[in-house]
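Amino acid chain:
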Amino acid sequence: MLQENSLLITLSISQWTARKHDKKITDEVNNQHNASDDAGRYNKLLVSKEHTDPINKIAGAARTFHYENTLPWGDNNERLLPTKNYFTYVQKMASFKSEFDSAIDVFFKNYDNVISEAKIRLNGMFKESDYPTRSEIQDKFRFRTTFMPVPDTDVRVGLVKGEVNKLRDEIEIEITNRLGEAVKDIWIRIKTQVAHMRDKLADANGIFRDSLFDNLRDLVDLLPCLNVTNDKNIDKVCKDLQKLMADPNAVRTNSNLRNEKADEAAAILNKFKSFF
């Protein structure tokens, strides 16, 4: 059952934007161009990007990994995490959180210098009040994952039998619909990857990078972990994708092999088109 092999996971990452609306500059620019008050809005970048980019890049990489290794579930930022992928997910997220915390520590330790640099960079636009204190800014950074069980249909509340059965049926339908969306997401990933490969390889003069096959390998490794319904068709397409793998350089230098792989990709899309 789904409840036994999956969890719901929410990733919450918050960051200080380091941006501030400057009403005075906004009014000056609008007046200078004889524009209405709502014509534009000037937002100051309070600190140089070199100080915030390391944090932003880690957060971005963590979000990408999160979405790649989970499946959609509902509308509340919850994602479905198959237990087959649990340890890989948890270990990688722990690594991201460690990197995130380390980057924040560096930022905090250098915070006084960051503000001093901003005084020079912003010059007349600098305002000391734009900058949170150390304790205030620390509360603006968060990296947290929350796990919850997938809701089951065991309804035990003080309702009459008819209402209990109705509620149970509604929950079953909702879970089935959400599970359908999760499986649909898997097929979309497959189609996107294979169609991209087919198009790249079918163009005899087109240039492709090694990542074309590296990304395919990553997908092949991930699919068994995401197959929460043990769908035999996903297992079948995974085997076909394994056969599609090849040495990128060999494909580049051998036109026959390139055409062969393009045809294989097209055949996979045709074979499983009813699932896309």
User: Anything to note?
Assistant: The radius of gyration is 25 Å. The chain has eleven helices and six strands. The first helix runs from residue 2 to 5.
